[in-house]
Amino acid sequence: MKKLFSNLFVLFLFLSLFPVTKADAQTTVTTGDMVITSKLMTFHNGIYVARGGIKAEQKDSTMTADRGIYDQELEVIKAIDNVKVTQPDTVLTSDYLEAYPKEDRLVARGNPKVTRIIEREKKGEDGKSSSKTRVILTCNEVESFNKEDRFLAKGDVRVIEVEYRESETEEEAEENEKKPITEITCEYMEMFSKEEKAICRNNVVIVTDTLTATGDKAIYLNLSSQVTIVGHAHAQQVSKEKGTNKQQTSELFANKILYYPDEERTIAVGNVHATVYPGSDSGKSKDKDKKKDKKDKKKKKKDKKKKDENLDDEEIDDSLKDVPAGDFTEIGGDEDEDDE
Questions:
Q1: How many other C-beta atoms lie within 10 A of the C-beta of residue 36?
Q2: Domain definitions of the chain by residue range
């Protein structure tokens, strides 16, 4: 992530310092291995203004926007409308972006979105295997401090991880986003690239296929694949009972909850209150039991009917000997019929 934003600073800095020349109906700045182009660029009172689209390229980094402004006095660089910064496996988009070269700081506002393709290793019975996933971050504001290798996401933060295929279309990608593997929401997220650590604060919610966890704060350590949830920590995890198809739900309240995604393992620490709700069979088992119960009921009815038909004539005569002649309607019936 550091590389993405540091390259963007350099691109904007060169844009403000070098004179421009006309080529192929565009204003072009070339220096070293970097090329900056715009359809129209003007300079007045220490402010450079680029209109009609701007594109800046250097090595594997490209920035595009509809307009660009550089204020020499304030030392602020701005990219406006349809801002997009791309690098291999990473894309940042927003409506507006500000860069402060002196502070080595960047701020993106207006629907900022960071998308990154990552490769994960999985341990299985056959050994290690790897697969690619797409991680998408959205929020109200993104701020980057390159000198500190620190990155902030503020307001309505949402991070999802979805399946990714090299040849997927935009429609397939949008469809995958509706079925995230993991989803994290919070109000504030801080990331440290060197330590490969992320800290989520305020109204933290983590959702996976088997876990829903909440807390005031969550710390993710990528190297050890561990999530630590603290402050009103609460988790519900679904797991299978050993040797059966039944699923059980464990609910935990604790001072601290440790979750290991790769192992789907959870540990609660401090003032632990745990409840295990008895599980139920899987869908197939339920259907099988229903069919068995229905079959048993039918068999009972059949056996009862056969028994009634085989009553001795003497027993029938005894039961009816005090009943006057005439037609009668049977009242009541087999209780099993109501169940059916």
A1: 24
A2: 205-305
The DSSP symbol for 241 reads P
For the chain, first and last CA: distance in Å?
64
User: Among residues 244, 234, 284, 235, which one has the least CA distance to residue 264?
Assistant: 235
| Distant-in-sequence, close-in-space partners of 188: CB < 8 Å, separation ≥ 6 | 152, 153, 154, 155, 157, 200, 201, 202
User: DSSP secondary structure string, 324-335?
Assistant: PSS-----S--H
Integer Cα distance of 194 and 305 in angstroms: 79
Coil vs helix vs strand at 10: helix
Query: 287-302, pLDDT tens digit by residue?
Result: 544 555 566 666 666 6
Which 3 state secondary structure label does DSSP give 139? coil
- Cβ–Cβ < 8 Å for 97, 108: yes
More confident residue, 157 or 87: 157
Beta bridge partners of 265: 260
pTM: 0.71
Residue 215, SS3 per DSSP = strand
